[in-house]
Amino acid sequence: MSWKKGDYEQLERAEEIARQSSKKPWWQQAGEWVQQKIVQPVQQAVPKIQAHLDNGLRWIDQHQPQTALAVGVGVGLAAAAIVLTGGLAAPVAMGLAIGVAGLTVGGGTVGLNAYFGRPLGTNVLRNVGYAVGAAALTSGVFIGAGLLVQHGVVQQGLYAVGNMATRLCVTYPVGCARVGDALELWDKVEDIGLQAKLAIQRARGDPRVAETALELQLEQLDNTPGNTTFREIQESLLTLVGRHGDDVTRLVERFGMEGAELLAKHEDEAFETLSHSVPASVSLEDVVPEKYLDEIRDAFDGEPIPITLQEDLTVTRYWSDPERKVGRWVTLRPDLHPEKARSILALPNDNLATNSSRFVIPKGSTVFVGTAAPQVDKSWAGHYATGGGLQIYIPDPAVLLPEIAH
Prior knowledge:
The chain has 406 residues and is an alpha+beta fold. It is built from 15 helices and eight strands. The longest helix has 37 residues, at 26-62.
Protein backbone atom coordinates (compact mmCIF):
# COMPACT_ATOMS: atom_id res chain seq x y z
CA MET A 1 0.00 0.00 0.00
CA SER A 2 1.43 3.32 -1.07
CA TRP A 3 0.99 6.62 0.84
CA LYS A 4 0.42 9.87 -0.90
CA LYS A 5 1.28 13.35 0.35
CA GLY A 6 -2.36 14.08 1.08
CA ASP A 7 -2.62 10.97 3.22
CA TYR A 8 0.24 12.17 5.43
CA GLU A 9 -1.38 15.56 5.88
CA GLN A 10 -4.69 13.96 6.91
CA LEU A 11 -2.86 11.76 9.46
CA GLU A 12 -1.08 14.78 11.02
CA ARG A 13 -4.39 16.68 11.29
CA ALA A 14 -6.01 13.70 12.97
CA GLU A 15 -3.17 13.44 15.52
CA GLU A 16 -3.37 17.21 16.31
CA ILE A 17 -7.13 16.96 16.87
CA ALA A 18 -6.57 13.99 19.19
CA ARG A 19 -3.97 15.94 21.20
CA GLN A 20 -6.24 18.97 21.58
CA SER A 21 -9.18 16.83 22.62
CA SER A 22 -7.06 15.11 25.31
CA LYS A 23 -5.64 18.46 26.75
CA LYS A 24 -6.97 19.24 30.25
CA PRO A 25 -8.81 22.49 30.96
CA TRP A 26 -6.72 25.31 32.60
CA TRP A 27 -8.64 25.13 35.87
CA GLN A 28 -7.91 21.40 36.14
CA GLN A 29 -4.20 22.01 35.50
CA ALA A 30 -4.16 24.75 38.18
CA GLY A 31 -5.79 22.40 40.65
CA GLU A 32 -3.19 19.74 40.01
CA TRP A 33 -0.36 22.30 40.51
CA VAL A 34 -1.79 23.39 43.86
CA GLN A 35 -2.14 19.77 44.90
CA GLN A 36 1.45 18.95 43.99
CA LYS A 37 3.21 22.13 45.13
CA ILE A 38 1.24 23.15 48.22
CA VAL A 39 -1.16 20.57 49.59
CA GLN A 40 1.11 17.54 49.45
CA PRO A 41 4.17 19.32 51.03
CA VAL A 42 1.97 20.63 53.84
CA GLN A 43 0.49 17.19 54.44
CA GLN A 44 4.00 15.76 54.62
CA ALA A 45 5.21 18.52 56.98
CA VAL A 46 2.34 18.37 59.50
CA PRO A 47 3.47 15.13 61.16
CA LYS A 48 7.00 16.53 61.47
CA ILE A 49 5.70 19.77 63.01
CA GLN A 50 3.52 17.83 65.39
CA ALA A 51 6.51 15.71 66.38
CA HIS A 52 8.68 18.78 67.02
CA LEU A 53 5.88 20.42 69.00
CA ASP A 54 5.40 17.30 71.07
CA ASN A 55 9.14 17.07 71.75
CA GLY A 56 9.26 20.73 72.73
CA LEU A 57 6.33 20.42 75.11
CA ARG A 58 7.82 17.30 76.67
CA TRP A 59 11.14 19.12 77.24
CA ILE A 60 9.34 22.05 78.88
CA ASP A 61 7.26 19.65 80.96
CA GLN A 62 10.41 17.93 82.18
CA HIS A 63 12.02 21.30 83.07
CA GLN A 64 9.07 23.16 84.57
CA PRO A 65 10.99 24.90 87.43
CA GLN A 66 13.76 26.11 85.11
CA THR A 67 11.22 27.32 82.55
CA ALA A 68 9.25 29.19 85.21
CA LEU A 69 12.43 30.87 86.46
CA ALA A 70 13.45 31.81 82.91
CA VAL A 71 10.04 33.37 82.24
CA GLY A 72 10.25 35.32 85.49
CA VAL A 73 13.74 36.59 84.71
CA GLY A 74 12.74 37.62 81.19
CA VAL A 75 9.66 39.49 82.37
CA GLY A 76 11.69 41.12 85.15
CA LEU A 77 14.33 42.33 82.69
CA ALA A 78 11.61 43.72 80.43
CA ALA A 79 10.10 45.61 83.38
CA ALA A 80 13.52 47.01 84.32
CA ALA A 81 14.08 48.16 80.75
CA ILE A 82 10.70 49.92 80.74
CA VAL A 83 11.49 51.72 84.01
CA LEU A 84 15.02 52.72 83.01
CA THR A 85 13.80 54.13 79.70
CA GLY A 86 11.23 56.27 81.46
CA GLY A 87 8.17 54.25 80.48
CA LEU A 88 6.69 53.53 83.92
CA ALA A 89 7.33 54.17 87.57
CA ALA A 90 9.29 51.42 89.32
CA PRO A 91 6.47 50.17 91.63
CA VAL A 92 3.98 49.96 88.75
CA ALA A 93 6.42 48.12 86.48
CA MET A 94 7.41 45.65 89.20
CA GLY A 95 3.75 44.95 89.98
CA LEU A 96 2.98 44.35 86.32
CA ALA A 97 6.03 42.09 85.99
CA ILE A 98 4.89 39.94 88.90
CA GLY A 99 1.37 39.71 87.49
CA VAL A 100 2.45 38.91 83.93
CA ALA A 101 4.97 36.30 85.07
CA GLY A 102 2.43 34.61 87.35
CA LEU A 103 -0.34 34.53 84.76
CA THR A 104 1.96 33.34 81.97
CA VAL A 105 3.49 30.49 83.94
CA GLY A 106 0.21 29.56 85.63
CA GLY A 107 -1.62 29.38 82.32
CA GLY A 108 1.25 27.48 80.72
CA THR A 109 1.33 24.91 83.53
CA VAL A 110 -2.42 24.31 83.25
CA GLY A 111 -1.99 23.86 79.48
CA LEU A 112 0.77 21.29 79.99
CA ASN A 113 -1.36 19.38 82.47
CA ALA A 114 -4.24 19.27 80.00
CA TYR A 115 -1.98 18.18 77.14
CA PHE A 116 -0.45 15.31 79.12
CA GLY A 117 -3.69 14.27 80.83
CA ARG A 118 -2.81 15.27 84.41
CA PRO A 119 -4.99 17.07 86.97
CA LEU A 120 -5.07 20.72 85.90
CA GLY A 121 -3.75 22.05 89.23
CA THR A 122 -0.58 19.94 89.26
CA ASN A 123 2.52 22.07 90.06
CA VAL A 124 0.67 25.33 89.33
CA LEU A 125 1.40 27.02 92.67
CA ARG A 126 5.02 25.87 92.66
CA ASN A 127 5.74 27.15 89.16
CA VAL A 128 3.90 30.43 89.75
CA GLY A 129 5.96 30.94 92.90
CA TYR A 130 9.20 30.44 90.97
CA ALA A 131 8.13 32.84 88.22
CA VAL A 132 6.82 35.54 90.56
CA GLY A 133 9.92 35.36 92.73
CA ALA A 134 12.27 35.54 89.75
CA ALA A 135 10.36 38.48 88.24
CA ALA A 136 10.33 40.41 91.52
CA LEU A 137 14.00 39.77 92.25
CA THR A 138 15.23 40.47 88.71
CA SER A 139 13.22 43.65 88.23
CA GLY A 140 14.12 44.90 91.70
CA VAL A 141 17.84 44.27 91.29
CA PHE A 142 18.15 45.73 87.80
CA ILE A 143 15.89 48.71 88.47
CA GLY A 144 17.77 49.44 91.68
CA ALA A 145 21.14 49.09 89.97
CA GLY A 146 20.01 51.29 87.08
CA LEU A 147 18.76 54.02 89.40
CA LEU A 148 22.02 53.90 91.35
CA VAL A 149 23.87 54.34 88.06
CA GLN A 150 21.57 57.18 87.00
CA HIS A 151 22.10 59.11 90.24
CA GLY A 152 25.87 58.62 90.17
CA VAL A 153 26.21 56.38 93.22
CA VAL A 154 27.96 53.63 91.26
CA GLN A 155 30.21 56.16 89.53
CA GLN A 156 31.32 57.65 92.83
CA GLY A 157 32.28 54.16 93.98
CA LEU A 158 34.33 53.67 90.81
CA TYR A 159 35.99 57.05 91.33
CA ALA A 160 36.82 56.21 94.95
CA VAL A 161 38.77 53.15 93.85
CA GLY A 162 40.43 55.08 91.02
CA ASN A 163 41.43 57.99 93.28
CA MET A 164 42.96 55.58 95.79
CA ALA A 165 44.96 53.93 93.00
CA THR A 166 46.17 57.32 91.79
CA ARG A 167 47.35 58.31 95.27
CA LEU A 168 49.21 55.01 95.61
CA CYS A 169 50.88 55.67 92.26
CA VAL A 170 52.16 59.00 93.54
CA THR A 171 53.61 57.27 96.62
CA TYR A 172 54.88 54.13 94.87
CA PRO A 173 55.59 55.05 91.22
CA VAL A 174 57.75 51.98 90.53
CA GLY A 175 55.08 49.54 91.65
CA CYS A 176 52.45 51.53 89.78
CA ALA A 177 54.38 51.15 86.53
CA ARG A 178 54.09 47.38 86.84
CA VAL A 179 50.30 47.48 86.94
CA GLY A 180 49.82 50.04 84.19
CA ASP A 181 47.48 47.79 82.20
CA ALA A 182 45.23 47.29 85.23
CA LEU A 183 45.04 51.06 85.82
CA GLU A 184 44.22 51.63 82.17
CA LEU A 185 41.50 48.99 82.37
CA TRP A 186 39.98 50.63 85.45
CA ASP A 187 39.92 53.97 83.64
CA LYS A 188 37.93 52.24 80.87
CA VAL A 189 35.52 50.86 83.49
CA GLU A 190 34.94 54.41 84.76
CA ASP A 191 34.32 55.49 81.18
CA ILE A 192 31.76 52.70 80.64
CA GLY A 193 30.05 53.58 83.93
CA LEU A 194 29.60 57.17 82.78
CA GLN A 195 28.29 56.05 79.39
CA ALA A 196 25.70 53.87 81.12
CA LYS A 197 24.75 56.74 83.43
CA LEU A 198 24.37 59.09 80.47
CA ALA A 199 22.27 56.58 78.49
CA ILE A 200 19.86 56.01 81.38
CA GLN A 201 19.57 59.74 82.08
CA ARG A 202 18.80 60.49 78.45
CA ALA A 203 16.18 57.73 78.31
CA ARG A 204 14.50 58.99 81.49
CA GLY A 205 14.72 62.68 80.55
CA ASP A 206 16.97 63.48 83.50
CA PRO A 207 17.76 67.25 83.64
CA ARG A 208 21.39 66.45 84.53
CA VAL A 209 22.18 65.01 81.11
CA ALA A 210 24.38 67.95 80.09
CA GLU A 211 26.37 67.70 83.32
CA THR A 212 27.00 63.98 82.80
CA ALA A 213 27.97 64.52 79.15
CA LEU A 214 30.56 67.05 80.31
CA GLU A 215 31.81 64.67 82.99
CA LEU A 216 32.21 61.91 80.39
CA GLN A 217 34.16 64.22 78.10
CA LEU A 218 36.51 65.25 80.93
CA GLU A 219 36.95 61.62 81.96
CA GLN A 220 37.95 60.67 78.42
CA LEU A 221 40.47 63.53 78.28
CA ASP A 222 41.89 62.68 81.71
CA ASN A 223 43.25 59.18 80.92
CA THR A 224 43.91 58.38 84.60
CA PRO A 225 41.80 56.45 87.14
CA GLY A 226 39.57 58.53 89.41
CA ASN A 227 38.40 62.11 89.01
CA THR A 228 40.93 63.97 91.15
CA THR A 229 42.54 65.80 88.24
CA PHE A 230 39.35 67.16 86.66
CA ARG A 231 36.92 67.37 89.61
CA GLU A 232 37.59 71.07 90.30
CA ILE A 233 37.27 71.93 86.61
CA GLN A 234 34.00 70.01 86.40
CA GLU A 235 32.57 71.78 89.45
CA SER A 236 33.61 75.17 88.05
CA LEU A 237 31.90 74.42 84.73
CA LEU A 238 28.52 73.41 86.19
CA THR A 239 27.24 77.01 86.24
CA LEU A 240 28.28 77.45 82.62
CA VAL A 241 26.56 74.18 81.69
CA GLY A 242 23.40 75.49 83.34
CA ARG A 243 23.44 78.46 80.95
CA HIS A 244 24.69 76.85 77.75
CA GLY A 245 23.94 73.13 78.11
CA ASP A 246 25.63 70.66 75.76
CA ASP A 247 27.47 73.45 73.92
CA VAL A 248 29.98 73.49 76.78
CA THR A 249 30.69 69.79 76.29
CA ARG A 250 31.17 70.31 72.56
CA LEU A 251 33.72 73.05 73.22
CA VAL A 252 35.60 70.83 75.68
CA GLU A 253 35.65 68.09 73.06
CA ARG A 254 36.91 70.57 70.46
CA PHE A 255 39.62 72.29 72.52
CA GLY A 256 40.59 69.55 74.99
CA MET A 257 41.60 69.99 78.61
CA GLU A 258 43.18 73.39 77.89
CA GLY A 259 39.82 74.62 76.62
CA ALA A 260 38.07 73.14 79.67
CA GLU A 261 40.44 74.99 82.01
CA LEU A 262 39.91 78.26 80.14
CA LEU A 263 36.12 77.83 80.28
CA ALA A 264 36.25 77.00 83.98
CA LYS A 265 38.26 80.12 84.77
CA HIS A 266 36.64 82.70 82.48
CA GLU A 267 33.18 81.17 81.90
CA ASP A 268 31.12 83.33 79.51
CA GLU A 269 34.12 85.26 78.13
CA ALA A 270 35.88 82.05 77.19
CA PHE A 271 32.62 80.54 75.92
CA GLU A 272 32.04 83.47 73.58
CA THR A 273 35.61 83.32 72.28
CA LEU A 274 35.84 79.56 71.79
CA SER A 275 32.32 79.12 70.43
CA HIS A 276 33.22 81.40 67.51
CA SER A 277 36.43 79.55 66.64
CA VAL A 278 38.24 76.29 65.93
CA PRO A 279 41.69 75.11 67.05
CA ALA A 280 44.52 76.45 64.88
CA SER A 281 47.48 74.29 63.93
CA VAL A 282 50.09 76.96 64.70
CA SER A 283 52.22 77.85 67.71
CA LEU A 284 53.75 81.05 69.04
CA GLU A 285 57.06 80.01 67.48
CA ASP A 286 55.41 80.13 64.04
CA VAL A 287 54.25 83.75 64.29
CA VAL A 288 56.41 85.53 66.88
CA PRO A 289 60.02 86.55 66.21
CA GLU A 290 62.43 84.65 68.44
CA LYS A 291 63.64 87.74 70.29
CA TYR A 292 60.07 88.46 71.50
CA LEU A 293 59.02 84.87 72.13
CA ASP A 294 59.87 84.69 75.84
CA GLU A 295 58.16 88.02 76.47
CA ILE A 296 54.94 86.83 74.85
CA ARG A 297 55.04 83.49 76.66
CA ASP A 298 55.60 85.21 80.02
CA ALA A 299 52.51 87.33 79.42
CA PHE A 300 50.33 84.21 79.62
CA ASP A 301 49.65 82.12 82.70
CA GLY A 302 50.21 78.76 81.05
CA GLU A 303 50.23 77.94 77.37
CA PRO A 304 47.78 80.02 75.27
CA ILE A 305 45.34 78.32 72.91
CA PRO A 306 45.77 79.10 69.20
CA ILE A 307 42.38 79.60 67.55
CA THR A 308 41.07 80.57 64.13
CA LEU A 309 37.90 82.64 64.20
CA GLN A 310 34.90 81.35 62.28
CA GLU A 311 32.98 84.58 62.90
CA ASP A 312 33.92 88.20 63.52
CA LEU A 313 34.79 88.82 67.18
CA THR A 314 34.36 92.21 68.88
CA VAL A 315 37.11 93.05 71.38
CA THR A 316 38.29 95.96 73.53
CA ARG A 317 41.72 97.52 73.98
CA TYR A 318 42.52 99.70 77.02
CA TRP A 319 45.04 102.54 76.61
CA SER A 320 46.09 105.99 77.82
CA ASP A 321 48.65 106.93 75.17
CA PRO A 322 46.93 107.70 71.82
CA GLU A 323 49.90 106.19 70.01
CA ARG A 324 49.02 102.84 71.62
CA LYS A 325 45.36 102.93 70.72
CA VAL A 326 45.93 99.97 68.38
CA GLY A 327 48.03 97.01 69.49
CA ARG A 328 48.40 93.27 69.76
CA TRP A 329 46.75 92.80 73.18
CA VAL A 330 42.96 92.95 73.60
CA THR A 331 40.23 91.50 75.79
CA LEU A 332 36.49 90.87 75.52
CA ARG A 333 35.20 92.96 78.42
CA PRO A 334 34.32 96.55 77.43
CA ASP A 335 33.19 97.67 80.90
CA LEU A 336 36.35 97.47 83.01
CA HIS A 337 37.25 100.32 85.35
CA PRO A 338 40.81 101.58 84.62
CA GLU A 339 42.18 100.14 87.85
CA LYS A 340 40.47 96.81 87.20
CA ALA A 341 41.78 96.67 83.64
CA ARG A 342 45.35 97.43 84.77
CA SER A 343 45.09 94.74 87.45
CA ILE A 344 43.56 91.72 85.71
CA LEU A 345 45.27 92.38 82.36
CA ALA A 346 48.63 93.15 84.04
CA LEU A 347 49.12 96.26 81.91
CA PRO A 348 52.45 98.17 81.95
CA ASN A 349 52.68 100.90 84.59
CA ASP A 350 52.68 103.63 81.94
CA ASN A 351 49.28 102.42 80.64
CA LEU A 352 46.66 104.01 82.89
CA ALA A 353 43.78 102.45 80.90
CA THR A 354 41.86 105.73 80.96
CA ASN A 355 40.55 105.11 77.44
CA SER A 356 39.25 102.12 75.54
CA SER A 357 38.57 101.33 71.91
CA ARG A 358 36.40 98.68 70.34
CA PHE A 359 37.68 96.64 67.42
CA VAL A 360 36.54 93.72 65.32
CA ILE A 361 38.86 90.79 64.67
CA PRO A 362 37.62 89.52 61.30
CA LYS A 363 36.61 85.98 60.55
CA GLY A 364 39.52 83.78 59.47
CA SER A 365 42.09 85.49 61.71
CA THR A 366 44.35 83.34 63.89
CA VAL A 367 44.94 84.60 67.44
CA PHE A 368 46.07 83.25 70.82
CA VAL A 369 43.75 83.28 73.84
CA GLY A 370 44.64 82.63 77.46
CA THR A 371 44.90 84.02 80.99
CA ALA A 372 47.02 87.07 81.77
CA ALA A 373 49.95 86.10 84.00
CA PRO A 374 50.78 88.14 87.14
CA GLN A 375 53.55 90.68 86.61
CA VAL A 376 53.89 92.09 90.15
CA ASP A 377 57.63 91.43 90.20
CA LYS A 378 58.36 93.09 86.86
CA SER A 379 60.01 96.51 86.79
CA TRP A 380 57.72 97.67 83.99
CA ALA A 381 54.58 96.76 85.98
CA GLY A 382 54.02 96.70 89.75
CA HIS A 383 52.06 95.28 92.67
CA TYR A 384 48.74 96.08 90.98
CA ALA A 385 49.45 93.72 88.02
CA THR A 386 47.95 90.55 89.50
CA GLY A 387 46.67 89.22 86.16
CA GLY A 388 43.97 86.59 85.91
CA GLY A 389 41.87 88.19 83.17
CA LEU A 390 41.20 86.72 79.74
CA GLN A 391 43.43 88.24 77.10
CA ILE A 392 43.91 87.75 73.37
CA TYR A 393 47.18 88.15 71.51
CA ILE A 394 46.92 89.19 67.85
CA PRO A 395 50.13 88.44 65.91
CA ASP A 396 49.26 91.05 63.27
CA PRO A 397 47.28 94.02 64.68
CA ALA A 398 46.78 95.28 61.13
CA VAL A 399 43.82 92.90 60.85
CA LEU A 400 41.88 94.87 63.49
CA LEU A 401 38.89 96.78 62.16
CA PRO A 402 37.34 99.69 64.10
CA GLU A 403 33.88 98.80 65.37
CA ILE A 404 31.18 100.67 63.49
CA ALA A 405 28.66 102.29 65.86
CA HIS A 406 24.99 101.56 65.11
